[in-house]
Design a protein that fits this description.
The protein is an alpha/beta fold and about 325 residues long. The chain has eleven helices and ten strands. It has a single domain, classed as Aldolase class I (TIM Barrel, Alpha-Beta Barrel), CATH 3.20.20.70. It binds ligand PBG.
């Protein structure tokens, strides 16, 4: 034997469970998870979503039960998405401004039940409210206008904050919306309502099951490529993040998750701010289908992918596996 060979054995620290535990660089905990929940009208309603096996829409009373479950599991935040009734959807998505809409009723019910034990994050974008499924206002040529959409998003954000939302999460990708929303929140006295910006959100093929869940898939005409980012771009993600931070975002999100971990890492190293990733519906479905087909152990796949987000630089992850993962982590 020559040189360092016998002295340097990287397998030495891997030889036992206690040593692997001692040397583990990245830890995953329930506190790293944000649980997206879909809300639907009615009482005592659970509607399974076919393309998201194991995920349901819940009526407001049952959403409160999910929220209490999150608290018991140590999950700090739930993210809410409404499945708006078809007759309440319109070209201009005005239901987003209704103080008594499904989203606001869910926020109030959860805050009343859980108070400061649980954060409520609310998605800001018009797609659950528009009859065309786009995230903003569409002109006669089918183009989603920017500045007129931002005006509505500001109203939507104020509506959610008034209902008690703790984190406003704009997912629409309009230019300038973070600054406009921040200013309006300050003016309204909501100084401690956070903004988690979907800063680098890509025009992705992984959103299909989500669109089923909020009922926009069949309605959507065309695609979202004029506002969501091109999957080939990375420099542009840094510009998006830089602007959102300058406009007042408290934290930023990269979306989808696993295929875009390189973006997470670049954003984290460049800006050193809290970065979150959204493990989106299509990613969740991939894991569920792979496990169902016998391609891997479900629990192991769930925990390994979520840990990868932490290793990649995330402060936390939005994942439909949140409750299941928290149960596994709590042993
Ligand atoms: C809406 C929105 C989408 C998702 C979160 N907010 C869909 C889209 O942009 O079409 C996707 C989440 C998922 O796929 O799990 N603006």
């Amino acid at each position: 034997m020559t040189g360092l060979f016998p002295a340097t054995r990287l397998r030495r620290t891997r030889a036992t469970a206690w040593s692997r535990a001692l040397h583990r660089e990245t830890l995953l905990a329930p506190a790293d998870l944000i649980w997206p929940l879909f809300v639907t009208e009615g009482t005592d309603i659970e509607e399974p979503i076919n393309s998201l096996p194991g995920v349901s829409r819940w009526s407001v009373d049952l959403i409160v039960a999910r929220a209490r479950e999150a608290v018991a599991l140590g999950i700090p935040v739930v993210a809410l998405f409404p499945n708006t009734q078809p007759e309440r959807r319109s070209d201009d998505g005005r239901e987003a401004l209704n103080p008594d809409n499904l989203m606001c009723r869910a926020i109030k019910a959860i805050k009343q039940a859980c108070g400061d034990d649980l954060g409520v994050l609310t998605d800001v974008a018009l797609d659950p409210y528009t009859s065309h499924g786009q995230d903003g206002l569409v002109d006669e040529r089918g183009y989603v206008g920017n500045d007129d959409t931002v005006e509505v998003l500001v109203g939507q954000s104020l509506n959610q904050a008034a209902a008690g939302a703790d984190i406003i999460a704009p997912s629409d990708m309009m230019d300038g919306r973070i600054g406009a929303i921040r200013e309006a929140l300050e003016d309204a006295g909501h100084v401690n309502v956070q903004i988690m910006s979907y800063a680098a959100k890509y025009a992705s093929a992984f959103y299909g099951p989500f669109r089923d869940a909020v009922g926009s898939r069949g309605l959507l005409k065309g695609d979202k490529k004029t506002y969501q980012m091109d999957p080939g771009n990375s420099e542009e993600a840094l510009r998006e993040v830089e602007l959102d931070l300058a406009e007042g975002a408290d934290s930023v999100m990269v979306k989808p998750g696993l295929p875009y971990l390189d973006i997470v890492r670049r954003v984290k190293e460049t800006f050193e701010v809290p970065v979150f990733a959204y493990q989106v519906s299509g990613e969740y479905a991939m894991i569920e289908h792979a496990a169902a087909a016998g391609a891997g152990d479900r629990d192991a796949l769930v925990l390994e992918t979520l840990l990868a987000f932490k290793r990649g630089g995330c402060s936390g992850v939005l994942t439909y596996h949140a409750a299941h993962a928290a149960r596994l982590l709590n042993g």
